[in-house]
Write a structure and sequence with these properties.
The protein has 246 residues and is an alpha/beta fold. 33% of the residues lie in helices and 16% in strands. The chain has 2 domains: 33-123, Oxidized Rhodanese, domain 1, CATH 3.40.250.10; 150-245, Rhodanese-like domain (Oxidized Rhodanese, domain 1).
């Protein structure tokens, strides 16, 4: 658990508490499984995969499931959306763990399991459905709180919107090969000490190469009274010609 969660648990009276300081990415990289919450399974913008046979899936499965039997997983993986969060379940825990490992090895970074698989879901009060099965994944990333859309970001870059400025938090070496023409360049590790260079009367649209550093910079600036938003997308620049892949 996180340090914040550990503190809350301690206040509730729990005593045997451990914190994995490296966080979930390091936990997953070490090969350990992660598990999705019931709310995330019900409402999250995820791809929920039923790894059981089509016959079993037709008889009853978790709502929103895509039926992809484990035996066909590798045949379908090339069509999976790379940035989607995947949640997997089966009626065989070993099979679910193998599928988790397979997807991680294929480069998918957000993969978790239904706690206890289908049986655990039902025991926890989760609903099931026998509606017509779906075997094709139709997923589109949804913007989260604190993000700026590509369209709004580009309005500032093109000068058609003047209520915001662009902040580039990449390293000097990265920005040397190209950048948005009117962007302010402050590397992530200098944002805290150089935040005074940014206007507080305008929104701050922040980008890096993928969005990870932009999110961290936005959190830092928002803590200090700025109105900052991160651009989540793959940014590549040559000179002042920059492209954004969502």
């Amino acid at each position: 658990m996180s340090t914040d969660s550990a503190g809350q648990a301690k206040k509730m009276g729990y005593k045997n508490i451990n914190v994995y300081l490296e966080g979930e990415p390091a936990w997953a990289k070490a090969g350990y499984p992660t598990y999705a919450s019931k709310e995330f399974i019900n409402k999250g913008n995820i791809v929920l995969i039923d790894l059981r046979s089509a016959e079993k899936s037709a008889a009853g499965r978790i709502p929103r499931s895509v039926t992809i039997p484990y035996a066909t997983l590798q045949d379908n993986v090339e069509n999976f959306p790379v940035k989607a969060p995947f949640v997997l379940y089966s009626d065989n825990n070993e099979e679910a763990l193998k599928a988790l490992k397979d997807l991680r090895e294929e480069g998918f970074k957000k993969v978790s399991l239904v706690p206890g698989n289908l049986d655990g879901w039902i025991k926890a009060g989760g609903e099931t459905t026998s509606d017509p099965m779906v075997s094709n994944i139709t997923w589109k990333r949804q913007m989260e709180k604190g993000e700026v859309s590509v369209a709004d970001f580009l309005k500032v870059d093109k000068g058609t919107a003047t209520d915001a400025v662009i902040l580039d938090v990449r390293t000097p070496d990265e920005s040397a090969s190209g950048k948005f023409q009117n962007a302010i360049s402050i590397p992530l590790d200098q944002v805290g000490s150089r935040k005074g260079e940014l206007p507080k009367d305008k929104k701050i649209y922040i980008h890096c190469t993928t969005g990870a550093r932009a999110e961290m910079a936005a959190k830092e600036l928002n803590k200090n009274g700025y109105n900052a938003f991160s651009l989540i997308g793959d940014v590549t620049c040559q000179g002042n010609d920059c492209t954004i892949a969502d």
